[in-house]
Amino acid sequence: MVTTIVWLIIGAAFSAALPIGLLLWWRRTRQARLLPFFVGALIWFVFAGTLEQLLHSAVLLGDNALARAITGNPYLYMVYGGLAAGLFEETGRYVAFRWLINKRRYPERDTAVTYGIGHGGIEAMLTLGATYATMIVVAFCLRHGNQSAALATMGGSAEALSTYTAALGQLTTGTVLLAMAERAGAMTLHIALSIFVFLAARDRRQRSWYPFAIALHAIADMPAALYQRGMLPLPAVEIWGWVVALLALYSARKQYLEAMDP
Fold it and tell me: CB within 8 A of 141, min separation 6: which ones?
């Protein structure tokens, strides 16, 4: 249990250190301003953390033909999940670059990267970081035989506690390292996608980058749905995510270097 807790602490710390470290490095090397970082975090929370989840609740949890069709077919579920993530997150980026981050005050291309760090950073902290932080508390409680405190941490839900306890039992050094690698890959993809959507929002001639970003995001996320259904191993999903992220970054870097600041 002690080893498990140590690795959970490492994983939780990494989820915060990665975006903060990137932001500090980017600010120092490019004199980047901070507002796009916070806008990126806000947009993820509103569009991915709230609006997308409301859609999932309406579509996937309803007692209707559509819900049964999507949840009953793993490939339809894969397409739905990927497109929903792509549509909500890339639309959020587009809204941010078009209307929330003033074009006159933030015209420089560095804005896209700063935003991407914030968008991907809050996702890392609220998914991996928050999950691991909760698991740390539960692990401490269980290690000291305090079942009631562990249950209280889960809001009194015995089912949630059982899920977290099972997850703790399956946790290994490898799974934590894999989760950290997945977050690093996701951050890479978020930065690349932010560059594409920045170009689409700021230049009418490059609007096609917006649907391109939606499609690319969907392609990157789709294998995760098959993993959830037990049809793909987790390492294969992570390798796929990194391949897409690196190809996206290569293309986005080219567009970034070709873009001219006013």
Answer: 147, 149, 150, 153
